[in-house]
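Re: your question from the hallway

Yes, I did run it. Sequences:
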Amino acid sequence: MGDLLSLFVNSVFIGNILLAYFLGICSFIAVSKTIETATGLGFAVIFVLTVTSPVNWLIYHGLLAPGALAWAGFPEMDLSFLKFITFIAVIAAIVQAVEMVIDRYSPLLYASLGVFLPLIAVNCAILGTSLFMVERNHSFIESVVFGAGSGTGWMLAIVSMAAIRKKVRYADVPKGLDGFGFVMIIAGLMAMTFMMFSGITL
Amino acid sequence: MQTDMSHYKEILIKGIWRENPVAYQVLGICSALAVTVKMSTAVVMSIALTLVAAFSSLIISSLRRWIPSNIRIIVELTVIASLVIITDEILQAFLYDISKQLSIFVGLIITNCIILGRAEAFAMANNPADSFVDGVANGLGYSMILVAVAFLRELLGSGQFFGFSVIPGFLYDMGFQDMGIMVLAPGAFFIIGLLVWLKNSLPGISHEKR
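Structure:
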């Protein structure tokens, strides 16, 4: 239990998927203009990550990993090179399903997120989490916790960024720096504050 | 022929400089930040991305008349993912150390918005030769930013260039220190932010509005 808690805290703060591994920056910048859409997208990312990470774990360890097909009579088969294409297909399918569910039950959320949901499919945070999960040899339970933790960390980062951008809306930024450059510098300062968490162990 | 050449040159300049994918369209920054601690990883990543961008544009553009528009994203992703698998296998076979350092970021070329963005915005509407040049141009534009960031981060962060120490020893004797922050995540954000500022201040470039 303690291990899982520490994995969760680690993936939210110390190894924050956005600020420490730079995953999902594209949508981080595009969607952090208002807090409402940032929150909505944050929840969508948490949900998609918590589902895709274990599903991809099952597929990887059931079909693709070296020796995983031993039950079918192919003990020497190593299909792990197929993981990229499999993972992206699984992610795209799950995102499509989530999109339909949101469209059916929350038209309001769909109206504000509509454009960005397909973007989740190509959000590197989602694919990156699945690939990290394979590279770090997580167990099944760990993959669920890691997915949820990464999603929470991503949401924390994007919502804070939206809040900061709201605060600095009327700030007098030098011409040329406003827009993307300014957001990057704020992100750098945020990454520095998140670094303070390193060294914390539970 | 002359017009052909100037036409390609136009596409190249657009992709590399005027509409640089990283600095102007804010695409594909994820990996631009993550692999730029050292020059060697940045250069390998740049080559890999440029090749994938060029060939995915070429293939998708050749297939564009046969791809049904409602499943086009999946088809595009399949083409890109196949190319990335090939790239990853080649890297593991010939450049194992660097492939280990790039870790998951080679795989993440699939979700790099530059490639899918160019496939959607350019390759689906233009002929294969133009699309190939456009892929190369955007790949080079990305590489340019990547190498610039990696150069600054490696130089300031560890005083090295391609792994060789280039800061003369007497500077260290005088109290010069490597900036540890450049090796860490915040350094990458700061460098990109400042590079964009520099680029927006140069003449001849459309300025992004907030």
